[in-house]
Amino acid sequence: MLLLRRLSKRSIFPVSLGGSRSVLCLGATGDSVDRIPELNRSRRFTMGENKSPLMERARNIVPHLETTRHKGQAGRIGVVGGSLEYTGAPYFAAISALKVGADLVHVFCPQAAAQVIKSYSAELIVHPLLDSNNAIIQIEPWLERLHVLVIGPGLGRDRVVLQTVAELIKICRQLQKPLIIDADGLYLITHDVSLVKDYYGLILTPNAIEFCRLFGNDRSRIWEMMEKLGRGVTVIEKGLNDRIYESLTMEKFECPQGGSARRCGGQGDLLAGALATFYFWALESKQEISPATVACFAASYLTKTCNSHAFKLKGRSMTCTDMIEQIHVVFEECFEHKKE
Predict the structure, then answer these.
(1) In the chain, is it the N or the C terminus that has fewer CB atoms within a 10 Å radius of its CB?
(2) Contact (Cβ atoms closer than 8 angstroms) between residue 51 and residue 124
(3) pTM of the entire predicted model
């Protein structure tokens, strides 16, 4: 399995959670080993640090555009979400994954959302299966083809759909599928943490409210909750400073602020879709030892920079669509390989 091969390269991270609670991990440049006393290791980066270690590593995971590559090699992403009320969220996540550079994106949604999502873009492959009687039987064969799955954008809280999603998470775990859970997918996890405990390769993307539901209001107990989630789980807490919590090394990274004061809907969906593409690239990279952390940093940086660029153009009237239109410009500016 792709994820298992990548994780085996990170087996140099022995983690001890008892006694002195110290951790061995590779340093940010990947060329040294540090011992981390206690669970308070934190690294902060600013938006001006375009040459920070994580930024350099984010650029390094981006595959070169080569004529020898075929369709699908840059990423086949799945988005599970959408509902009668929320059709924009899965679209924003899916189209962002494509705009960042994935080759194909599949959207698995309820029947009521399918035609609307299809009308937004002919680029997406839409499966109106999520609320069908045999949803699992119809969706499971597609999972083997997908490199990363995003669960949650626009999902809603229909009981039957959530039961289906819970079964999908169990199947993804069996397949060792790299998984990102966002939005109402996190609502499901809040009610049953066992679904994701010790899920190697899982990334959770809570906003401020969702983070409080998962971790509580006492920030001194964050690492205690991370231990309950188990090893191999990464969390990116979205906010003024996005924060990345890595359970394997018990490190916290503070991402650059950036962005603007405009808080239009859909920004989390953009981040989730971009994260899926970056995550696959990081897993494919032969040199990256912490693919989830680097992918989270890249997605955060891209989203906040898209916000800044779009706000300069549209100000208070800026929407998520305006931000998505900036993905190409921001990617070229921050991540693309420069020609010699």
Answers:
(1) C
(2) no
(3) 0.87
